[in-house]
Design brief:
The complex is a heterodimer.
Chain A (H helix, E strand, L loop, with lengths): L5 H18 L4 H29 L8 E9 L4 E7 L1 H20 L8 H20 L3 H10 L1 H11 L4 H30 L4 H7 L4 H18 L8 H8 L2 H26 L1 H27 L4 H22 L2 H32 L15 H15 L5 H16 L1 H26 L16 H19 L2 H29 L2
Antiparallel strand pairs in A: 1-2
Helix pairs in contact in A: 1-2, 1-4, 2-3, 2-4, 3-4, 3-11, 3-14, 3-18, 3-19, 4-5, 4-6, 5-7, 6-7, 7-9, 7-10, 9-11, 9-12, 10-13, 11-13, 11-14, 12-13, 12-17, 13-14, 13-16, 13-17, 14-15, 14-16, 14-18, 14-19, 15-17, 16-17, 16-18
Chain B lengths: L11 H20 L4 H20 L5 E3 L4 E3 L1 H27 L6 H17 L4 H19 L6 H32 L4 H9 L6 H17 L8 H8 L2 H24 L6 H21 L7 H22 L2 H27 L1 E2 L2 E2 L9 H4 L1 H15 L5 H15 L3 H26 L15 H18 L2 H12 L4
Antiparallel strand pairs in B: 1-2, 3-4
Helix pairs in contact in B: 1-2, 1-4, 2-3, 2-4, 3-4, 3-10, 3-13, 3-19, 4-5, 4-10, 5-6, 5-10, 6-8, 6-9, 8-10, 8-11, 9-10, 9-12, 10-12, 10-13, 11-12, 11-17, 12-13, 12-16, 12-17, 13-15, 13-16, 13-18, 13-19, 15-17, 15-18, 16-18
The chains are: A mainly alpha, B mainly alpha.
Chain lengths: 503, 481
């Protein structure tokens, strides 16, 4: 559409910053200062450029926009094909927004190997954005897996005491899921002679049994990433051990890769298998929503609690995605965005007190409202957003998913709604334990409120959460055409399969 | 196509290498130990010149009454072998000087072994194959034991010799059976006999099994891998580097040209053998390496695993599969040379160390070296976007095309297990606290250049795998007229 390869620019600009970070030399202090600035400026500029995408995005079009297409490895039928539609647009923005916030949030808390840290984050941004833009299955896989390398290092180098265990668990768990997806991609290649996703969406016709095999292969990959119960166990470990910014990216963007993968690949490419396996997804998701909410209730570590709440919220996402009506899918997308903002902010909230007290034990806190009013307010907003208070972002997504679910399956909707009640319980419980009560602990007597940098970190997230809650149409409208197409194509494919099955 | 009296010119590169080696040998004998540095550099140069001669001019055809064949595949494989051998000779100096074993025979033995490899790659007859293989093996047995005053090195040499002789014996026995049933040793004759219906005869199949077993030993595929870890660990490190690349590429090329050439009519029979060897190699390479503490031993298991993947490409028996084999071998060559160049840089107070624990905290004391090794490890693990991923992707594409679904699934699962031990090296370098005494700062030298160049090449192949796949496609074409 445009002559400017704007998607490639957004994707690879962070790498330029990473390169400059690498070649910075000089005394340690200066290097650290420069690397921080370079990383912040690069990711900030990247975010601004990505805003152009939103501004120039045509919400009436269902297909892909800003497309770029080049041959990459023609011998293997792989092309460099980038493009976004209403489904991927906001994930790109989410990634580009959270990266500068992460860099700002680690401004003071990271003081060892700052250069490598910034490089890792910038490389990570490239892979994340690239994954949401990729329109070639192999390219998608490259970005999807490439994320593991910087994240492995971020957890392993800058993480907590059990960082090595957590990093390996994270890496091997997700790799195990993904390699099967690689075989599925290869199988699709042999069907079509290309790995181009757009071609695959139009032309891929597979017999039902093959659809099921491939669906399960994709499922192995995305379910681990989402993560769905029972393959979620890497998440609490990874979250607890990762540095604050690592948790933010993990919860904010990496989990969305799973949900996005379902919507981008599983559903449009394998509609019959999707229909066949939807009850499985519902079952696992409902278990996730209820079970992990209960588990969250008994956590003693703040990060672990939020990690389990992520699993529960993502359960709602997968329900919405596989309900496959317009409300469900829109709700699922919206819930992912909202969760991306809210859980990121909650992890940042944990980071704020962790930087001061160096503990995440819930029991170590209490009565912070007396010393930290600004913090208490921020934390409250995001807790309520997470609970789903109307007027904040969480509500819209949950509501849409439940509306969609009631249309399709009352039982699923009822059980999922139960999870929400439990969600309110643990989130409010966490808030009360930390913020309210008497300030009795001596160690907390000297704690100081958020400084200006931290306010800058939280402010955009806070405003976004309000915006998404009060006027969700700004976000739902650009999605609408693409979601309509996704749902329409799916239903057409199912109908076609049904008529074909009739004698 | 070159035929007739002029056909000997097809063997010009080999003849050149043989002549230079002979001259250098005379020079070395006359001048004594003082000549070592010159002989080593000249040998490397000669190997590289030979590689150039392969393409200037490039010609195809058969020579010496069809004993010797030259086509795209053999030329490409020879080029890989020559580069591997030349680089490892250059990498050797520091190590052998320190071990007080820097003698002029070493580079010459490597050159002779390389000559043997070139002959076996070009073999078009079972006898020629055997002669080339033995020339290679005998030279390598000596090289493995080259550090005469080291017990480990001597042991490695003896072990390699004894087990290698058994393998050669098997190969010869198989060859004689095939000769008996097919009535000839030339590949053309065998092929003709098999197409004419001798394929069903048990003798041929048994002969084939023995030949494959002999070659599987040379590529160290399971279940003929037992020598690999001990020899890799015991042999001097530069020799291990050589073993990991040159003979492996040569033997793999031979396996390809034997199985895809005269024995193609028996595809259904040998496919099972290769699939089994492949799956077992991938699994063993993955699991056995998990607990290794010595990085050379680890690389031995890693090479067994890699051979498993390459064999999977061969087992698919398709054009894509052979392309994948060539592609994978080229990337494997680069990664392996890089890893071994890095291992050769691991010194503490001037003494070579080779424990994985010695790498702890390397990212802080030697950031560049650690980063290069990180690239190699993620690449070996097959994590995209690094070069090793493209190799694996190519292999699995071929396997899925040939409907080898289960081997492909087992292969990707094995690659997950294997990634654990590659990651462990990254973990030691990046996550662990630095050792009490850091490794020496590497001095500028061949090994640094090789490590750097390999890292750059891995990066280039990661982003632009296409040119290499074009080369691989051209090489494979010859087998599929």
């Amino acid at each position: 559409m445009t002559s400017w390869p704007i998607l490639s620019l957004v994707t690879f600009l962070p790498l330029v910053g990473a390169f400059f970070c690498l070649i910075v030399n000089g005394p340690k202090e200066a290097v650290e200062r420069n690397c921080r600035s370079i990383a912040l400026v690069t990711s900030g500029v990247t975010f601004l450029i990505s805003l152009i995408l939103w501004a120039r995005f045509d919400p009436t079009k269902a297909g892909f926009q800003f497309e770029e297409k080049l041959d990459w490895v023609p011998a293997l039928g792989i092309g460099y094909h980038m493009g976004i539609d209403g489904i991927s647009l906001f994930f790109v923005l989410l990634s580009t927004l959270l990266t500068p916030i992460c860099i700002l949030a680690s401004w003071e808390s990271v003081h060892v190997r700052v250069k490598e840290y910034m490089v890792a984050f910038l490389v990570l941004e490239t892979f994340m954005v690239g994954m949401f833009c990729a329109l070639d299955l192999a390219l998608f896989y490259v970005f999807f897996e490439g994320v593991l390398i910087p994240m492995f290092l971020i957890i392993g180098v800058w993480g907590g005491p059990r960082r090595v265990y957590a990093a390996f668990k994270f890496f091997l768990y997700t790799l195990l899921g993904s390699v099967l997806m690689l075989l599925a991609i290869i199988a699709i290649y042999w069907q079509l002679g290309t790995t181009d996703l757009v071609v695959a969406m139009e032309r891929l016709q597979l017999p039902f049994t093959w659809q099921c095999y491939l669906w399960l292969a994709f499922f192995a990959s995305f379910a681990v990433k989402v993560p769905m119960w029972p393959v979620h166990t890497w998440l609490p470990d990874a979250h607890v051990e990762a540095p604050t910014a690592g948790s933010v990216i993990l919860a904010g963007v990496l989990l969305k890769m799973g949900g996005y993968g379902f919507l981008r690949l599983s559903i449009p490419l394998l509609p019959e298998a999707t229909q066949y396996f939807a009850p499985l997804i519902f079952g696992l998701s409902v278990v996730a929503v209820i079970y992990t909410s209960l588990v969250a209730l008994v956590q003693e570590d703040m990060k672990k609690l939020i990690a389990y709440s992520s699993v529960a919220h993502m359960g709602l996402v997968t329900i919405g995605a596989f309900i496959l009506n317009i409300q469900g899918v829109q709700g699922s997308l919206f819930q992912m965005l909202s969760h991306g903002i809210v859980s990121a902010a909650l992890f940042l909230c944990v980071g704020v007190v962790y930087d001061r007290m160096h503990t995440r034990e819930i029991a170590a806190y209490g009565g912070l409202v007396h010393r930290m009013p600004r913090y208490a307010f921020t934390f409250m907003v995001f807790t309520l957003a997470s609970v789903g208070l109307p007027g904040l972002s969480g509500f819209v997504g949950e509501f849409l998913v439940l509306v969609g679910a009631f249309k399709a399956n009352t039982w699923v909707a009822t059980l999922a709604a139960t999870g929400l009640i439990l969600g309110a319980a643990y989130a409010l419980w966490l808030y009360r334990k930390i913020i309210f009560g008497e300030l009795t602990k001596d160690s907390l007597k000297g704690i100081v409120d958020m400084n200006r940098r931290e306010i800058v970190v939280f402010l955009p997230l806070l405003l976004l959460s309000l915006w998404m809650g009060i006027y969700p149409a700004s976000f739902l409208d650009p999605m609408a055409a693409s979601v309509d197409k996704l749902v329409g194509d799916y239903q057409a494919a199912i109908k076609l399969a049904r008529t074909a099955a009739l004698p | 196509m070159v035929v007739g009296l002029e056909s000997w010119t097809l063997a010009r590169p080999e003849l050149f290498l043989a002549a230079v080696t002979a001259l250098l040998l005379i020079y070395g004998v006359v001048r004594g130990e003082a000549s070592t540095a010159f002989v080593a550099v000249s040998t490397s140069a000669a190997l590289l010149v030979t590689a150039v001669l392969l393409f200037m001019p490039y010609r195809e055809g058969t020579a010496f009454a069809s004993l010797f064949i030259v086509d795209r595949l053999t030329t490409t494989m020879k080029a890989l072998v020559l580069v591997g051998a030349a680089v490892t000779v250059l990498m050797s100096r520091a190590y052998f000087e320190q071990a007080k074993a820097w003698r002029f025979e070493y580079p010459l033995l490597v050159a002779l072994a390389t000559l043997g490899m070139m002959l076996m790659i070009s073999a078009n007859d079972l006898m020629a194959l055997y002669v080339g293989l033995e020339l290679q093996s005998l030279a390598l047995y000596v090289v493995a034991a080259f550090q005469r005053d080291s017990i480990r090195s001597t042991e490695a040499g003896v072990k390699y010799f004894v087990l290698g002789s058994v393998a050669s014996g098997m190969l010869l026995f198989g060859a004689s059976l095939i000769y008996g049933f097919c009535g000839g040793t030339a590949f053309v004759e065998i092929s003709k006999a098999l197409i004419d219906g001798k394929g069903a005869e048990a003798g041929v199949i048994i002969g084939l099994v023995f030949v494959v077993a002999g070659l599987a030993f040379k590529v160290s595929a399971v279940p003929f891998h037992m020598w690999t870890p001990d020899v890799y660990e015991g042999a001097p490190t530069p020799v291990t580097a050589l073993f990991a690349v040159a003979p492996k590429i040569a033997a793999m090329s031979l396996l390809v040209s034997v199985l895809m050439g005269p024995f193609k009519p028996l595809f259904a029979q040998w496919q099972q053998i290769i699939v089994a060897a492949s799956v077992l190699s991938m699994a063993l390479g993955a699991f056995a390496a998990l607990r290794q503490q010595n990085i050379k031993r680890l690389m031995a298991y890693s090479s067994i695993g890699n051979v498993g993947y390459i064999l999977l490409g061969l087992a698919s028996g398709s054009e894509k599969g052979i392309q994948a084999v060539v592609f994978y071998l080229a990337i494997y060559l680069v990664m392996t040379l890089g890893v071994f160049a890095t291992i050769l840089l691991m010194k503490r107070r001037g003494v070579m160390v080779e424990g994985i624990g010695d790498l702890s905290g390397l990212a802080r004391s030697h950031p560049m070296m650690a980063f290069a090794l990180l690239l190699f490890m993620f690449s070996l693990a097959g994590i995209p976007p690094l070069a090793g991923f493209w190799g694996k992707l190519y292999i699995f594409m071929a396997a899925v095309e040939a409907k080898l679904y289960w081997p492909a699934v087992l292969g990707v699962l094995a690659s997950v297990v294997a990634s654990y031990y590659y990651l462990r090296i990254v973990k030691v370098m990046y996550f662990d606290e630095p050792a009490a005494e850091a490794l020496d700062q590497p001095v500028f030298g061949v090994n640094r250049v090789v490590a750097f160049a390999s890292a750059v090449l891995v990066a280039v192949f990661s982003l632009a795998p296409q040119p290499l796949s074009v080369v691989a496609a051209a090489a494979a074409k010859g087998l599929f007229p």
